[in-house]
Known about the structure:
The chain has 279 residues and is of the alpha+beta class. Strands 3, 4, 6, 7, 8 and 9 form a six-stranded antiparallel beta sheet that branches. Strands 1-2-5 form a three-stranded antiparallel beta sheet. The protein contains three helices and nine strands. A hairpin with a 5-residue loop joins strand 6 and strand 7. It has helices spanning 2-42, 52-134, 216-224; strands at 137-147, 153-162, 167-180, 199-201, 206-214, 227-238, 244-254, 266-267, 273-277. Helix content is 48%, strand content 28%.
Amino acid sequence: xxxxxxxxxxxxxxxxxxxxxxxxxxxxxxxxxxxxxxxxxxxxxxxxxxxxxxxxxxxxxxxxxxxxxxxxxxxxxxxxxxxxxxxxxxxxxxxxxxxxxxxxxxxxxxxxxxxxxxxxxxxxxxxxxxxxxxxxxxxxxxxxxxxxxxxxxxxxxxxxxxxxxxxxxxxxxxxxxxxxxxxxxxxxxxxxxxxxxxxxxxxxxxxxxxxxxxxxxxxxxxxxxxxxxxxxxxxxxxxxxxxxxxxxxxxxxxxxxxxxxxxxxxxxxxxxxxxxxxx
Length: 279
């Protein structure tokens, strides 16, 4: 009985709790419906009114400023491009002008060098021409055979000085020999020694030199043409510019050339020359 009673009480308590829960849920729904109805009865439509003029003007100013900046940037870029192009062209022009200037300078230097060389050559030529006109010249002016009373003979040569200035320290060295016309022998060099007399000859002056002696037998053989005689030598002198010169000569007589009193000797093609010695 007690168990049945307890179960009955428990069932009653459960039903009561379910009823309370249903009541609470119904109450909550009624409150929500009331609030919804109240909200619908007092709701007012809201329209958001924008200010298009103010927003558009601000945007327009902002966009205008951005456009101005872009225009300025573009203009600056174009100016920089123009400056870069101008600088490039100026650089090319500068390079061209530099190359042209360098070539012109090199050409001017070449012309100056050639002019300097020409001037130096002209000065040297003028100096040489002046020296050649003023310096002394010596040559064998004439020669002749001289017979003596005893039957012998000798050769007389005349050294003449040309030019406008004297010949100084002149010395004459010469040799003579007779050869068989069929068996000629070499001519030995002329010998000079310090004891030989030296002299000066004025412009257009001359100096005689006797070479010999030639014995009577030698003179007779020369006159018959059986032998040939060689007379050779060298005249040394110094001009006013302290330049040493020489004049060499080679003469022949007898044989086919003849050998008579007063006859001039024949000048051969070789052995006659003029030159300079180192000063």
